[in-house]
Design a protein that fits this description.
The protein has about 180 residues and is mostly helical. It contains nine helices and no strands.
Length: about 180
Amino acid sequence: MSPRISFHQIAGWLGPRDRGAVALCGGLGLVVGVAGQGWAAAPGLALLSGVAAAITLIDLRHHRIPDWLSLPLIPLGLIEAALTAPPWPRLAAMAVVWLVLTGLQRGFLWLRGTSGLGGGDVKLMTAAAAWLPFEALPFYILAASVTALIEALVRGANRTGAIAFGVHLAPWLVVFALCPGCHSI
């Protein structure tokens, strides 16, 4: 198990341009949130957008998803869900997602001797279950998996390194959160 990433380490990983990009993404999340879901949902969507941008940048460079960024998304998503419906279905979905992905993660480790899915990815997908309706989760995971597969193919079939899956999970979470009806297209 790797050591926890400190808040100061996260701040050090995000330079001035990165912080500007994070702020820009948060602002865009606010504007799109107001336009699509109203003022009540917009602040949470702005935070989600900014945090997702930070996760994407950090995972792209360091192949890590800091708990300081992913775990607060869970209560924030449940609060956001409670604005329109009871949060119990999201809690159940979170439990299912966490159990299934943790089982897959441990099974892969047992079979192959190496981790095929990082703990940060599991936590981020669990956070996604707090933000998205249960019926959207398969489409969310499919979208992130397809773009990760495209990345792997573009980089070359002989590539042996790991793919930063959070780079695909975080942006798709924002897309599905900002466009709640997109999964039913």
